[in-house]
Amino acid sequence: SNIETDSSTTETIPNRNEKFQEEIVEGLRSTPKKLSSKYFYDKNGDKLFQEIMAMPEYYLTPCELDIFKNKTVELADKLSLGNEPFDLIELGAGDALKSSYLFRHFVRDGRDFSYMPIDISGNILNELQQRLQKELPNLDVVALEGEYFDMLEKASAISERKKVVLFLGSNIGNMELEEAYQFCNSLNKKLNKGDLVLIGFDLKKNPNTILNAYNDKNGLTAKFNLNLLVRINRELEADFDLSQFEHYQTYDPISGACRSYLVSLSKQDVSVADEIISFEENELLEMEISQKFSKADIQELADKTGFAFVDQIADSKNWFVDAIWQV
Ligand code: AVJ
């Protein structure tokens, strides 16, 4: 039987939904109103993000793929850890398209390592594990389903080997700068001396190039943002009228913050989880930050969170870097 569709008891509603409701309602009660982009990725959101990655304007994915495809040896070399056995841990592994170039290389090289993908989605991990079992039977895969830091702890309990932690895709850009500093600090504390991290950063560049990637003509990014309202309507019995919200994107080339908002097109009341949320006409709903960095910004982040710079490897356009740091 499926407990999630059993409406007779409230105790069986999973924790995750309660946390979702709490965070969404709290965001809608604050001034300015905000929603967290970490909730963009329901089934439809995953699909929309796939479509975004296929748009010609969205340069990030091809740039980082260029690094993993064409600079594999260089990457592997910087991550070699004196040929010691190690665990390759990936935060938010998804389909592991980019990282697979790296671990295939390590397998061919006969390195002694386990690949440990961490993801919040059990479905994605199952698919990945089954595919890797078929394609790379010699690769030891230990999938860890849950929050990043909980699962890092679990990884340490499973194995005492050196760690290489991957955090790709400029996912760090979805944190406010202050949160990114906290995140790197916590990551540093969870690791041991000598461990390595590889973090993907989208670089500051021609501001029009950046704005175009998030303000696409076909409105996919707008749909991606609005999809969170659809999700809230479905999961929290809300009644957002999508025609009354408009996507608005900004990029500030000085700070490097690329931000998306939804603008309320009228004075309106929305009911969300038994609560009425009132919007003024033109009131903003903060949705997502995609922070961009200069190479100096990245260096400062490493310096102030306890990491030593090892290298940073850019794509051929110099638009994206994978920074390698050591504890
Ligand atoms: C998944 C965080 C890399 O911020 O560039 C794409 C998500 N948002 N278009 C990004 C996203 C709008 C993306 N990351």
UniProtKB/TrEMBL annotation:
Residues 20-326 form the Histidine-specific methyltransferase SAM-dependent domain. It comes from the Bacteria. Pfam families: Methyltransf_33 (PF10017). The keyword Membrane does not apply. The keyword Lipid metabolism does not apply. Residues 1-18 are annotated as: Disordered. InterPro entries: EgtD_Methyltrsf_superfamily, MeTrfase_dom, MeTrfase_EgtD-like, SAM-dependent_MTases_sf. Gene3D superfamilies: Vaccinia Virus protein VP39 (3.40.50.150). Keywords: Methyltransferase, Transferase. GO terms for biological process: methylation. GO terms for molecular function: methyltransferase activity. Residues 1-15 have a biased composition (Polar residues). This is L-histidine N(Alpha)-methyltransferase. It comes from Sphingobacterium hungaricum.
